[in-house]
TrEMBL record:
Family: Belongs to the lyase 1 family. Argininosuccinate lyase subfamily.
Molecular function GO labels: argininosuccinate lyase activity
Domain Argininosuccinate lyase C-terminal per the UniProt entry, residue ranges: 362-427
Protein name per UniProt: Argininosuccinate lyase
GO annotation, cellular component aspect: cytosol
C-alpha cells in the first residue's frame, strides 16, 4: 500500500511484529458498514457513478458474506482488517475498489470501526446485565423473607434477608448499565472524514455519513478525533467495575457454599469435583469470575499506559488498544451468561440460614436502640449493651436468655419488656426507613425491578 515511497519490501519479522489482522478482523462488519457509508458520500459528491457505488456496495457485502461463512482468507502481509477487505474488494470489482479510500485514512477508519464496535458491544452487554439482574431478582423473590445474618468485617452484624442481600447486587448492576450507557452516549460521534490528521481537501458529507451509521454527531476536531481513545478506556473501566461486582457476588457465594456457612448450594452443573478428593464440590465458576476480574483491571491499565505518553495524533502504539478491548468484552459477556445461569439454579438452605440468624447477638444494636427509646443517650446505651454482651460471653448464656435481674443489675434503664427486643419479626418490622430490609420495602423493590426488567 506504500510501495511508491519504499524500495525494499517490509521484512518478514516486521510484518509479523506489526500485523493486527489476527485480532482486528473482528471489526470486519463495522469496517464494511463504514465503507459503504463512505462510498455513499462519494456518490453524493459526484466522485462515484451509480454503477461504481453499486459495485462497491455489493462487493463489500459479498466479502462480508464470505467472512461470515468462514471462506475468507486473511493475509498477514496486508496487516489489518481494513487493507484485507479493501484489497479483496479491488480484486473482485476492479478499479472502482481502488477509489474507495479517497478522502479517508486508516486513522479515521479504525477510529470509526472501534466506535461502532464499542457501541454494539455495549448494547449486547447491557442486555446481558439485564439477564443477570433478572436471575438475581427471581432468586430474591423466591427467598424474599428468608432471614440471614448480614456481615461486616466478615463478622455477624445484623439480620437481613436473602432477598435484600441479592437485591444489593441488582442495584450494583444497574449502576453498571448506567455507566455503559453513559459511555455509549459519549462515544457515539463519528470521526470519519478526519483523515490522517487534518481532514481532506476532498470534502465529503460527514454529517450524512454519521447519520447513516447511527451516530449522533460528528467530531469537531480532526486531531482529537484521530488520537481519542477515551471511550475505550471508559468502556474498559465500566467493564472492570462489572467484574468487581460479579467478583464480590462470587466471594459471597463461595462463603455461603462452604461447610462452615452452608447457606447455599450450587447445582452440579455449575460446580466441579476434585481429581483426588471424591467428596469435593468446588464453586469454580465463582473462583474463575473472581480471578478473571484481575484480567479486566489489567486490560484497563494496559490501554491507559499505552495512551498516556502519546503526542498528537496517531501513533502505532494505539494498535495495542484492540486486544485488551476485545478480551474484556468477551470476558465480561461470558461471565454474565454463566453467572446468570448459576444463580438461577442456586438453592438456599433455609434451615441453616434460620439457625444462623437466630443468634441473639445479631440484635445487640436493636437492644441499644431500645435503651435510646427509653431516653438513654446512644453512647451510654452502647456501653450498657456492651456490658450485657460481655456477661453473655463470660457466662455462656445467650443474650436473650439473660434474666431481667441480670439486665437491671447492669442498669435500671432496662425494663421488664427487654426480652421483646429479641423477636426477629418485630426487629424487621421496626426497620421502616426506605432501603431497610423489612418485608414491605423488599416487596416494593422487587415489584419495581420486576416491572423494569420485564
Amino acid at each position: 500500500m506504500w510501495k511508491g515511497r519504499f524500495s525494499q519490501p517490509t521484512a518478514d519479522l516486521v510484518q509479523k511484529y506489526g500485523e493486527s489482522v489476527s485480532y482486528d478482523w473482528k471489526l470486519y462488519k463495522h469496517d464494511i458498514a463504514g465503507s459503504i457509508a463512505h462510498a455513499g458520500a462519494q456518490l453524493r459528491a459526484g466522485m462515484l457513478t451509480e454503477e461504481e457505488f453499486a459495485s462497491i456496495r455489493d462487493g463489500l457485502l459479498s466479502v462480508q458474506a464470505d467472512i461470515e461463512a468462514g471462506n475468507f482468507i486473511w493475509s498477514q502481509e496486508l496487516e489489518d482488517v481494513h487493507m484485507n477487505i479493501e484489497s479483496e474488494l479491488t480484486r473482485r470489482i476492479g478499479a472502482a475498489g481502488a477509489k474507495l479510500h479517497t478522502a479517508r485514512s486508516r486513522n479515521d477508519q479504525v477510529a470509526t470501526d472501534t466506535r461502532l464496535y464499542c457501541r454494539a458491544e455495549i448494547d449486547a452487554t447491557v442486555e446481558l446485565l439485564h439477564d443477570m439482574q433478572r436471575a438475581l431478582v427471581t432468586k430474591a423473590a423466591e427467598y424474599a423473607e428468608t432471614m440471614i445474618p448480614g456481615y461486616t468485617h466478615l463478622q455477624r452484624a445484623q439480620p437481613v434477608t436473602v432477598g435484600h442481600h441479592l437485591l444489593a447486587y441488582v442495584e450494583m448492576l444497574d449502576r453498571d448499565v448506567s455507566r455503559l450507557l453513559d459511555c455509549r452516549r459519549r462515544l457515539n460521534v463519528s470521526p470519519l472524514g478526519s483523515g490522517a490528521i487534518a481532514g481532506s481537501t476532498i470534502c465529503l458529507d460527514r454529517v450524512g455519513i454519521a447519520e447513516e451509521l447511527g451516530f449522533d454527531a460528528v467530531t469537531e476536531n480532526s486531531m482529537d478525533a484521530i488520537a481519542d481513545r477515551d471511550y475505550i478506556m471508559e468502556m474498559l473501566f465500566a467493564l472492570a467495575v462489572v467484574g468487581t461486582h460479579l467478583s464480590r457476588l462470587s466471594e459471597d457465594l463461595i462463603l455461603w457454599c462452604s461447610a462452615e456457612f452452608g447457606y447455599a448450594t450450587l447445582s452440579d452443573a455449575h460446580t466441579t469435583g476434585s481429581s483426588l478428593m471424591p467428596q469435593k464440590k468446588n464453586p469454580d465458576v465463582c473462583e474463575l469470575t473472581r480471578g478473571k476480574t484481575g484480567r479486566l483491571y489489567g486490560n484497563l491499565t494496559a490501554v491507559m499506559v499505552a495512551v498516556k505518553g502519546l503526542p498528537l495524533t496517531y501513533n502505532r502504539d494505539l494498535q495495542e488498544d484492540k486486544e485488551p478491548l476485545f478480551d474484556s468484552v468477551a470476558t465480561v459477556q461470558l461471565a454474565l451468561r454463566v453467572n446468570a445461569e448459576m444463580v438461577a439454579a442456586m438453592k438456599i438452605n433455609t434451615a441453616r440460614t434460620q439457625a444462623a440468624v437466630s443468634d441473639p447477638m445479631l440484635l445487640a444494636t436493636d437492644l441499644a436502640d431500645y435503651l435510646v427509646r427509653r431516653g438513654v443517650p446512644f453512647r451510654s446505651a452502647h456501653s450498657l449493651v456492651g456490658r450485657a454482651v460481655a456477661l453473655s460471653v463470660e457466662s455462656g448464656t445467650p443474650l436473650n436468655e439473660l434474666t431481667l435481674a441480670q439486665y437491671t443489675e447492669i442498669s435500671p434503664e432496662y425494663g421488664a419488656d427487654v426480652h421483646e427486643v429479641f423477636n426477629l419479626e418485630r426487629a424487621f418490622a421496626l426497620r421502616t426507613n426506605p432501603g431497610a430490609p423489612n418485608a414491605a420495602n423488599t416487596a416494593r423493590r422487587l415489584a419495581f425491578w420486576q416491572e423494569k426488567l420485564a
